[in-house]
Amino acid sequence: MVAFHEAVGATLGVTAVDQRALAVIMGAGSVSAGELAKEIGLTPGAVTGVVDRLARAGLARREPDPQDRRRLVITAVPGAFGDAFSGLAKAMAELTDRYTPAEQAVIGDWVARTIAVLREQTRILNERR
Amino acid sequence: MVAFHEAVGATLGVTAVDQRALAVIMGAGSVSAGELAKEIGLTPGAVTGVVDRLARAGLARREPDPQDRRRLVITAVPGAFGDAFSGLAKAMAELTDRYTPAEQAVIGDWVARTIAVLREQTRILNERR
DNA sequence: CACGACATTTCAGTACACTGAACTAAATTG
DNA sequence: CAATTTAGTTCAGTGTACTGAAATGTCGTG
């Protein structure tokens, strides 16, 4: 999975950090540059570069906030991320079809719990520094 | 999962590439520096650095090949990789216990097939360059 | 046993993302 | 409405991993 993400990044011209930033953006719907900086642990100066690369790759957009014109509203471009993963999505959909609904439920449960475990373990590792 | 790997790398002082190299080493049992270079797509010069970092982190060992003293036999240090992931391994073992043997079989089947899909999709992406 | 081929290391140069500080522009406050 | 705070960008400096080429040591071969 790590190798796959690296390959996606190489074809799109974005780093691993950029992809994690995109995940944050998609998860939140939209974020400001400052929020993004805090979330991924970079300085505001570095975030400019992150958003530059995501925008150049067509994955995110940078718009001024109409309420507060100092701020940016950074949003994911709908579909762009999916396009990069369309081959994977198709193959995974075919894979899912091999299982009964009951089996799919078990798999889904396991995946959700595994994600929770990974999040927790990541938190522990990052705390120890 | 990508974030977790990054956190592991940061605590051990190895890069994502280094970790993929370690996976190659463990998968093959042992490799020479040249084989490793070809496998992960780096020049021989860069591989010296990769092995340096893995050795410094206590994850791999670099020994001269007794048959051909120009060559290196690079092996993984048994247990070292597992130690870095011991927290994850424990949590995942507990998670596994929540499921019946039949359910575990379904999950195992899905994981194996998902890995195959990811390998294939990674190959396709890397080919397109 | 000398010669060319091979495996790895070393080293200078390059690329690139990050930090920290200065800067611009916009909002808030008194 | 001036002064302060806040948001983001720019820029010089830094760290680090990679490439390409030269150097070192070792293996086969005629």
Automatic annotation (TrEMBL), chains A, B:
* One term of GO molecular function: DNA-binding transcription factor activity
Keyword Protein biosynthesis, does the record have it? no
Its GO biological process terms? response to stress
Q: Which UniProt keywords apply?
A: DNA-binding
Which Pfam families does the UniProt record give?
MarR_2
Entry-linked InterPro entries = HTH_MarR-typ, MarR/SlyA-like, WH-like_DNA-bd_sf, WH_DNA-bd_sf
Extract the PANTHER family matched here.
TRANSCRIPTIONAL REGULATOR, MARR FAMILY (PTHR33164), TRANSCRIPTIONAL REGULATORY PROTEIN (PTHR33164:SF106)
Domain HTH marR-type residue range list: 7-104
The protein's name is DNA-binding transcriptional regulator, MarR family
Query: Per the record's keyword annotation, is DNA-binding included, yes or no?
Result: yes
